[in-house]
Amino acid sequence: MHRLRLDSFFPSRLIIRAASQGSRCRVTNCFLALPALAGLFLPGIAWSQGPAPVRVTAVHEREVSTGQAFVGTVTPARKSVIGSAVSGRIVELKHNEGDYVEEGEVLAQVLTGTIAIELAHAESELKFRQEELEESVKSFPVEKQQADARLAAAKASRDNADSNYDRQQVLATKKSTSQEAVDNARAKAEEADAMFLEAQATRRLVFEGAREQRIRQLEAKVASQQEQVNLIKDRMKKYTIRAYFTGYVTAEFTEVGHWIRDGESVVEMAELDTVDIRVNVNEDAITDLEVGEEVRVEVNATRTKSFLGTIQAIVPQADVKSRAFPVLIRVKNPRRTARVEGSAVTHELKSGMLARAILPVGRQKASLLVSKDSVVLGGRVPLVYAVVPSAETAGEGTVRPVPVELGVADGGDIQVTPVSPEAGLKSDDLVVIEGNERLRPGQKVKYSLAPREAAAR
What we know:
By secondary structure, the chain is an alpha+beta fold.
């Protein structure tokens, strides 16, 4: 007779003691698989937490178009060939085909040796011009003071010479001085008067003339040289080729070491956060479609299979042979992985995938419609969780999965057809629209009506 007793449990170690008749053995450090233990204990824990809170809405029945499938192709919402704005040699190519690139990231680098020298020369010339202007501006007040001082000295000399000349003239009338002394005094007075006029002219030249004009000329030279530096810096930025939007590198047109001319292509990029499904719709159905209308798109190559999109454009020019009009359906492209270190973003929809757009055209038919939020995708078939109300407790019940086939979209609702007639989905049944991702068949729930549904009732 063997007995098995669980003495203690640790996250990574289970100690089991086994005792048998006549012998006793202890097994320690036995590493067991945690998922197995979780399978034993967690279901009971989950059920012990009580009914899961969910929000529900009713199934409706109304007349909608039966819908028609149109085959199309997934295309990027934006696609661009990014080229080089300058000529030079490629010294670095940062990304390869398939890489996910954020807006502003560097794609390639062109050699900048020559333009770096040009920039250094232009910046040195700018510094020289700035210092020349600074020297002229700083010396201007000193020159003004010098001009005022020279004018004052010339005025004093003139006044003194005029006074001496007047005295000599008075003495000459009294015969107290010689004619030579009078002539010398007159000559000095005239010389002093000329020097005063020269000092006046020099002062006007300093205050009103070429000096201020010279400063303005130097300021213009500094501004011109600054723009020259800005021009070279702007050219230098073009040597670094960057991504103009977030997307994938879909093609490369150059390699490291290749000499590229301005205007030549470097890489091709495609944005896939949103994609366009391009389908051709025949002329007898095109009048039933409107821009902004929500439609369903099936892409069997993806895990999600079914997507909701909006008619972005109806091109009013048919192909003259097929009489079909191009229709663009804009779809948000879900990401499968987040961009973290060591991994890249992956979008479900890829450019060039085959798609089928279910457009609301054709005859009207009474159909079941559910909120698009109630549809659970990602499995083998889409399904909704219908609520079976409890007979004992109001607002509680259990859920049952109902596999469905999806039809046309109608506003915020989508047409559904149960895969099996025995599923029993009918108008006014309640289906879960919030919390349905975590449900299991038969799970107890505590439900409440969506606000719009509650207001309608």
